[in-house]
Amino acid sequence: MYYVMDSRIVPQIHLADYWILKPPCAHKKRVPHEYIAYLIQKGELYLAEDGITYHLHPGDFILLDPDKYHEGKQITYCEYYYIHFQHDMIHLMTHPMLEESENNEIDESKMHEQMLQLRCAAMQSDSSEAPNEKSHQLMLPKYCNIQDETVWGALIQQIQQVVSANSDHMEYYKDLSGAQFLAFLIQLSRASLTFALQENKMITARGYKKVLEVQSFLHEAYKEPLTGDYLEEKFDINFDYLNRLFRKNMKKTVFQYLRDIRIAHAKQLLTTTSMRIMEVSECVGFADESYFSKVFKKQTGVSPADYAKTQEIAQHN
Question: Is 311 helix (H, G, I), strand (E, B) or coil?
Fold first, then answer.
């Protein structure tokens, strides 16, 4: 089960804290009238919502609905973070992008395919492009378990920042805590999608992780004179195999992706600076100006000089 949330709107946090539930106390019975997110740190929690019981362990995340009754089902020891919040644009997934089966249940496999397509589109997009409507549709799981220790550590750190920001009571502290919580939800959404794709064998854990590492590195080091041998040594993987993994997941080879990053940055420099073509070429990783111009024209349909003139005219109109 998933929710869709407009990521352009910052959540409004009511409460954010860390709680230790000890016997003989049990979790409250209530209809909260606001969303509640739980992140379990230690122990276990039996929590029922509308008759469905969740047995929560460390690494678990759950999002409770504002209009559904929930209660603790057993007395247990548990340490967890909780966030009470409101948001004007969040609802259970009944989105037009999804299909429903004959019994009105959402086809999650199709949803995962479409979410993977959205991720691939984002990873391949030109950073200067205006985002489309779908790119703001944040997909949040009702429940998920964070299995990767690195991801779990990052999420704990992020939610600690939420709690800290919400308690300092300096000016704009509610805005800051809401923004921090939005960052937490984005990271959670990314992690849950990756785990779901691995579970459904749509990606392989090791291969996809390696592709993401290379993709992130290319965005950082696009100015450098990168070669297949260099990438093979840096990532300790046969370059031909890496290229196959990259093409399978990104629909482009490693150097096609690198080329697109360089051209995207070149377009930004041509639009926002007065740098000469030779300087732009060097700045984005092309050692030869004529080769840069050839690649740029093949990608955009115009020469770098003509592109700069066209953008200048467009900005003045």
Answer: helix
